[in-house]
Amino acid sequence: QAWSDVLAALAAMPPSIAAEPSWRFWRARALLTTGRADEGRALLRAIALEHDYHGLLAAEALEVCVDRDNLPAAPDSAWQAAFLTRPGVARAIKLAALDLRGDSQREWLAVVRDLDDAGLLQASMVAAAHGMYDRSINTANRTRERHDYSLRYPTPFRDLFAAAARDRGVDEWALLGIARQESRFVPQIVSSAGAMGLMQLMPATARLVAQQTGRTDYRPSRIAENPISTQFGAYYYKYWLDRLDASIPLALAAYNAGPGRAQAWRPAAGTMDAAVWIETIPFNETRDYVKKVLSNMVWYARELGEPAATLKERSGVIGPRPVTTANAVERGG
C-alpha cells in the first residue's frame, strides 16, 4: 500500500518494462491514491480499451462496459467456400487431422496473417467448423476493431462441461475458462510436462482422482477422453477450491503450480487484495496463467448469461497461509 514507493519504482524502470500492461495498471492505481486522480483515470481509460485481465480491471475501476466493441459476425458462406479453396487452408486442415499441430499452425498463420477483421472472423468460423478450436480462438483474437466474443470464447463440448460442473458443484464458466487456457479445447494436446486432455491433467493426478472418485473403469489410456478429462478436471479444481478458502485465484495457482507452492505464496499474516497478490506470484507462468484464466472466467460468465460478479468480486482477498497444510492430491508437475 506504499503507493508513493510504487510510483518511484515505476519511474526507475526502463521504459520498455514500465510500458507493460501490468505496470501501466499499477501506475494508474498509484496515481489515483496519491492525489493525481485525473492522470490515473486517463491512464485507466486507455488500459480499458484492451481486452485482457488488466483491461477488465481498468474497466471495472471506471465502471464502464467491457464489451462495448462486441459485434457478432454472421457466417458468409460464399467467403468461407472461397477461403477453403486456398491451398494453405487445405494443408492446415489436413495437418490438424493428422495431429501435426505445429505444422498446421504455421500453415494457418500464413493464410490469415493479412486478413482484415471481417475476414479473420470468417476464418475463425471455418477453423471451429473443422474442430481447430485453437486456430479459431487465436484467429478471432487477432481482430483490431471489430470483435466477436462468442468466437474468442467458444463453448465446444458444452454438454460435457455442463455435466461436470453440475456433478462436481462448480461453475460451468470456471471450467470453460480453465480449459480455454489449458488446451484451447484441443483434446489431443500434450504439454511438455506430459499433461493431457481438455483439462490438461498429469497421469499421476488422473490416477489419484480416479481413486478418490471411485472410478474403477479408469485406465491410463483414457486420460485424454473428453468425458474423463472434464470430470476429473472439475473434481481437481473443486478439490482445491474447497481447501483454499474458496479462493478462485488460489485454486488456479494450485491447479497450475501445485498446492504446496500456492500455500507457500500466501501472506504470512493478514489479508491481501487478490490483484496485488497475483502480481507477487514468483513463477511467471503461474502468474500469467492465473490472470488469463480469471479473465476467461469473466468473459465466459457473460457468454453464459451470468455477468453479475466482477473480476474483483470473483478474485476477493487472499488470506494468510495456515500453520499446517493437510495431505492432498498433487498435480504431479
Detailed description of the structure:
The protein has 20 helices and 2 strands. With 333 residues, the chain is mainly α.
Quick structural gist:
With 333 residues, the protein is mostly helical. It has 20 helices and 2 strands. Strands 1-2 form a two-stranded antiparallel ribbon.
Q: Outline, from the CA principal axes?
A: globular
- Total DSSP E strands: 2
| Radius of gyration, whole Å | 21 Å
Distance between the termini: 34 Å
Along the chain, the helix and strand elements come as: HHHHHHHHHHHHHHHHHEHHHE
Count of DSSP helices?
20
Instruction: Report the uncertain regions.
Output: none
Portion in helices: 55-70%
Q: Strand fraction band?
A: under 5%
Main beta sheet strand tally, sense and closure: 2 strands, antiparallel
Structural class: mainly alpha
Average pLDDT, to the nearest integer? 93
Main β-sheet, spatial strand arrangement: 1-2
SSE inventory with pairings:
Elements: H1 3-12, H2 15-18, H3 21-32, H4 37-47, H5 53-62, H6 77-84, H7 87-97, H8 101-112, H9 117-129, H10 133-140, H11 149-152, H12 158-168, H13 172-182, H14 203-212, H15 226-243, H16 248-257, H17 259-264, E1 272-273, H18 274-280, H19 284-303, H20 311-315, E2 317-318
Antiparallel strand pairs: 1-2
Task: Give keywords.
two-stranded antiparallel ribbon, 20 helices, 2 strands, mainly alpha
